[in-house]
């Protein structure tokens, strides 16, 4: 992330860097124009592949991400988040879509997005949402917040706090190991060594105060992270 955007004492950064990901050029242009002066746009992307490339190259504080995107394996915005997690990207994701269906909301939040708002949002509102996401908050349009609570339960906030202890790579390793992948299978999936996987698993167990892979699987299952 850009060092100029680092905040002190947990406050929102003075300037927040973003990448806009949407397959409609007119919408990207309009959103760029609507963002306040505290938001610095580092680039834009229209497909899953373009998004992965530019996010990896620029490492923005926040990615404004459409849910439905062409390219990749057809997973849209959720696939972008998964791909970036595998690369160890530290950017936070705010989903911005015309869709307000529960399925879309839950899918992208489960993938790792920190918030979800609809495209009816105003310029000042999206600017505020970006700054809040950059400072670590979760942001949802009022109607969509109910979907998140229904899907993840009232423990959602506590789960966020626990997951914030993990890096993007540790989170990806945690999910695969909790699903029953072996160290070797996880290493192959993430294109890293088995020894690196072992190091990440040890860190995950320590940070979550768990003692075994079995406890990790139970922990993740209870929190509906799999």
Automatic annotation (TrEMBL):
Signal peptide: none annotated. Residues 17-134 form the Response regulatory domain. One of its GO terms (biological process) is phosphorelay signal transduction system. Keywords: DNA-binding, Phosphoprotein, Transcription, Transcription regulation. Residues 159-224 form the HTH luxR-type domain. One of its GO terms (molecular function) is DNA binding. It comes from the Bacteria. The modification 4-aspartylphosphate is found at residue 66. Pfam families: GerE, Response_reg. This is DNA-binding response regulator. It comes from Arthrobacter cheniae.
């Amino acid at each position: 992330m850009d060092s100029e955007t680092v905040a002190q004492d947990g406050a929102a950064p003075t300037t927040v860097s973003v990448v806009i990901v949407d397959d409609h050029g007119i919408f990207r242009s309009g959103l760029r124009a609507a963002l306040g002066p505290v938001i610095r746009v580092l680039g834009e992307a229209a497909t899953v592949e373009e998004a992965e490339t530019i996010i990896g190259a620029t490492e923005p504080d926040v990615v404004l991400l459409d849910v439905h995107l062409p390219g990749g394996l057809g997973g849209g915005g959720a696939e972008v988040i998964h791909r970036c997690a595998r690369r160890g990207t530290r950017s936070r994701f705010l989903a911005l879509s015309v869709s307000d269906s529960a399925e879309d909301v839950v899918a992208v939040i489960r993938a790792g997005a920190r918030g979800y708002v609809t495209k009816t949002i105003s310029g000042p509102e999206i600017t505020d949402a970006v700054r809040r996401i950059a400072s670590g908050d979760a942001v949802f349009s009022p109607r969509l917040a109910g979907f998140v609570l229904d899907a993840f339960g009232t423990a959602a906030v506590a789960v966020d706090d626990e997951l914030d202890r993990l890096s993007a790579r540790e989170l990806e390793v945690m999910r695969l190991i909790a699903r029953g992948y072996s160290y070797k299978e996880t290493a192959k999936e993430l294109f890293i060594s088995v020894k690196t996987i072992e190091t990440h698993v040890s860190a995950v167990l320590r940070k979550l105060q768990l003692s075994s892979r079995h406890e990790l699987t139970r922990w993740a299952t209870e929190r509906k992270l799999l």
